[in-house]
Automatic annotation (TrEMBL):
One GO cellular component term noted in the UniProt record for this chain: plasma membrane
Signal peptide limits: 1-28
Compartmental location: Cell membrane
GO BP: any one term: adenylate cyclase-activating G protein-coupled receptor signaling pathway
GO molecular function: adrenomedullin receptor activity; calcitonin gene-related peptide receptor activity; calcitonin receptor activity
Species in which this protein is naturally found: Oryzias melastigma
InterPro entries: GPCR_2 (IPR050332), GPCR_2_calcitonin_rcpt_fam (IPR003287), GPCR_2_CGRP1_rcpt (IPR003289), GPCR_2_extracell_dom_sf (IPR036445), GPCR_2_extracellular_dom (IPR001879), GPCR_2_secretin-like_CS (IPR017983)
Protein name: Calcitonin gene-related peptide type 1 receptor
Pfam families linked: HRM
UniProtKB keywords: Cell membrane, Disulfide bond, G-protein coupled receptor, Glycoprotein, Membrane, Receptor, Signal, Transducer
Family label: Belongs to the G-protein coupled receptor 2 family.
Amino acid sequence: MAVWKPDRFGWSWMVALVLLSSPTMVKASPDVNESEHQPTNVYHDIGVTRNKIVTAQFECYQKIMKENPQSRQEAMCNRTWDGWLCWDDTPAGVTSEQNCPDYFQDFDPSELVTKICTESGNWFLHPVSNRTWTNYTLCNERINEGRMTAMNPFLFGPHRTWIVFGLPLHIFGESFSILKV
């Protein structure tokens, strides 16, 4: 009976097969510890998102129409709906803040959204589009960091053991196969 002796090509394929046979999918976040579980729904239904936004918009417009405008003696930005969040009347020169909406899977509701009321009592206009602008950039900043570090456990976790021990074992095995020739 013929015995299979792995050559250099065979050893390389075996090591690659072992390293790639156990895929690891991890999302890393510096703010979440082991006692906190934050489930994410990969297949987030767009209809649910749309319904949340439409409901928030409806409630905002009701609030805008229901509340009486204050007798204004100072400059103030009017309450408004920006497409995702409802903003109350804000005194001039103040930056208003609220938590990011939970409409989107890649938004972190613990982060802050900002909207600037200028000294003249108008909402800040974006310099490029010349339209009122709300800063949502922090809402998915850490989410992107989590995606970038998702491969770290793969590269520096249990697979490191295969790199540390498997490579010398491969070299050691090669030396024996060379000696037997």
